Amino acid sequence: MGESPRQSWVRTAVLLGIGYALVGIAFAVPATHMQAWRLAAWVVSAIGYAVHIAYERFRLQNSPGSAALHVAFAVALGAFGLAVGANIHSLSAGSTQHRHLLLLSLGIWPVITALPAFLVAFGTNMVLARVLGSRGGE
Question: What is the model's pTM?
Answer without folding.
Answer: 0.84
